[in-house]
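Repro:
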Amino acid sequence: MAIRVLLVDDQPLLRTGFRMILEAEQDLAVVGEAGDGLQALDQVRALQPDVVLMDIRMPRMDGVEATRQITGPDRDGPAKVLVLTTFDLDEYVVEALRAGASGFLLKDAPANELVQAIRVVAGGEAMLAPSITRRLLDKYAGHLPSGEEPLPDTLHTLTDREVEVLKLVARGLSNAEIAADLFVSETTVKTHVGHVLTKLGLRDRVQAAVYAYESGLVRPGAQ
């Protein structure tokens, strides 16, 4: 079965470009387009896409609010949201991740990265680009805890090893990289990540990374 994709962007030319890229792939099918967040909500209900490729700044309803409604508790379907951004709009990305996006990608990313990101998100994983994540969090460090505040009580439910894994997830490491860093197997890492998500009530690695920074466990710029 092909992955059903909905394109949401207020620029028709960009939507056309994305459509051409995606329809060249046998496992991807563009099922519709929308020019703003309100149209996106209607299209999600009508078309039931697997992945919504979502712009951030749009008229009538922006991508953050549309993402919140698509992925929220009253959602009508299984759609995942992959946010598109530019460096000029970085401040909106963290809000989109909080709203429930499964990841984000730069609009000028190579075509193969766009295709792979859609496949990753459709498979239930998070698309968390380490370099962009670090740049974002470093840039907006002033809005995050200084590290002097007490850590939230929920962190105390984690074992020491689970805390280590959470810190590495927050820095954008893959399971393979975490396994190499901690000298354990990838299966063990997957188990730890699963425990972290369950104990903290988080949906995926993206939310785990945001949580780690917002809680003060990891500070922007720290190695």
